Automatic annotation (TrEMBL), chain A:
Entry keywords, A to Z: Membrane, Transmembrane, Transmembrane helix, Transport
Membrane topology designation: Multi-pass membrane protein
Family, as annotated: Belongs to the binding-protein-dependent transport system permease family.
GO cellular component annotations of the record: plasma membrane
Gene Ontology biological process terms in this record: transmembrane transport
Gene3D superfamilies: MetI-like (1.10.3720.10)
Subcellular location: Cell membrane; Membrane
Coarse class of the protein's main subcellular location: membrane
PROSITE patterns the UniProt entry points to: ABC_TM1 (PS50928)
Keyword Transmembrane helix: yes
Name of the molecule in the record: Carbohydrate ABC transporter permease
Pfam families from the UniProt entry: BPD_transp_1
Keyword Transmembrane helix recorded: yes
Amino acid sequence: MTAVSPPQARPVAPRAVPRPRRRRLPVVRMTLLLVFALVFLMPVYVLLVTSFKPLSEADPSRAWLLPEVWTAEGWRAAWTALAPGLWNSVQLAVPGSLISAVLGSLNGYVLAKWRFPGADAVFTLFLFGMFIPYQAVMIPLVQLMTAADLIGGIPGLVLAHVVYGLPITTLIFRNYYVTIPDEMVEAARVDGAGMFRTYRWVVLPLSGPAFAVVLIWQFTALWNDFLFAVFLTGPLSWPTTVALNNIAGAQVVPYSQQMAAALLASLPTLIVYVLLGRFFMRGLMAGALKG
Amino acid sequence: MRRYRRWLPGLVLLAPSMIAIAVFVYGLIGWNFKLAMSDQHDQVTAGKFVGLENFTALWDDERWGLAVRHAVLFTVVFVLGALVLGWFLALLMDKGIRGEGGFRAVYLFPMAVSFIATGIVWRWLMSPAPPERGVGLNQLFDSVGLGFLANEWWQNRSYGMAAMALPAIWQMSGYVMALYLAGFRGVPDELREAARVDGCTEWKVYRYVVFPHLRPVTLAALIILGHISLKIFDLVVAIATKQIIADVPAVYMWVMTFDAHDPAKGATIAAYMLLAVAVLVIPYLVWTVRSERRA
């Protein structure tokens, strides 16, 4: 879909538009895109530059300049403060996204290929769960988790993320499985394969891309979540976001350490994004309900 | 019996998830409404039913009124800003441009970052102190001779929440760009070509052929941005902590639940948030599922 042919090369160019202007247009577009790209990257510059500055260069007049002396002291302090949170986030996001993907795959399979009467209504009810403000379930959820002795720890947080992740994961897999021809499932059925065998031998081998999308989506969502974490976990199991917010919230912490911590906390999702951006993109599209 | 066998296994396999959604989404929403309609204003006494009393009393609370006004201003600036910027970026890239993949990556990467990390760097950028003492954009404006642009950003009483929307626009407009770009590219080339043959200028091709095709994209983007905006929480906490000057419903709900220990009031705020999102999302969901079934 990347049609890079410049517009003036088209044979039926309308004459109404004066030619010089048309030739300038791609340059204007490129310039504007570059300006916006700079604006978008400005916070990254700030993060990087500030994180390597020593305390002695905290002078506001030097705020936008490169450090005179590059130092990793901010990074070291950030790592010390953030390491437990990072480890908690790994324990949260890895199992959480795996469980979410397996459940989403099975649910999506049913809703795409083993539909039962009323499946559309069930699907709609699932989807609404994707949009609700989680505040609307939070107070009862805390009471429920307390009663089940799951409050304050990581397992409870994983449970919450898996349950409230069901709508989006089901949606992504369902929209993906709808594109598998019915005949393939039907053929397996005629050969006597039941629901699980059809899933195992026909559907699952085709599911790779959908798993990639869902795993990336859920990993990012779990890694970046703050709301559930702040309500459901205690100091010992605080994930990265809460730890990060606590570091930054203490006004005495130097900017270099805050910025290094923010970068450190974002690295895992940024790496995933850089390496697997293609799948990340598809997950975003699925979020718009158009698979 | 044969017919049952066609769909019963599917229902059984989906049942655990259906039960989970029924309990954790709809059950807890119901529980939350029950709490919101009780007078359980501390964590000790069992509340009794008081009807809609909390729902009306909330509007006498000055801080709630402020939070709602903030949310409205934030929503207008954020939704319009991200929509227009995303649309414009997609328009610039529509015909293909050198390094398109790179541009897309740059505009989209903020999506992968948490609102908390975004908040930390934007709090630095939007530092309200004057250039002599402060960092961030005020400092930058001053050093390039645009000192008159220096302002108090989110700490301004009247337009502060509009500044608060800037980081959210930074984070979400790449997403809108991606949606629109897919929309632009989804318009069949024959349609554009036909319009050109009919003598349309490039602008008219966009105006009468391409833009009308984008209405569903605009609607989807509006719904997504709108529901994010009504729920905005992390970003505000990261930038302003719990200051009244930047209160939004989600933060006020947190304060009422955690600091004031008033479950009934927290639940009431949460119920209003749910209603606001429901009004936005339910018609859209019903419409989407229906039009998909028709297709």
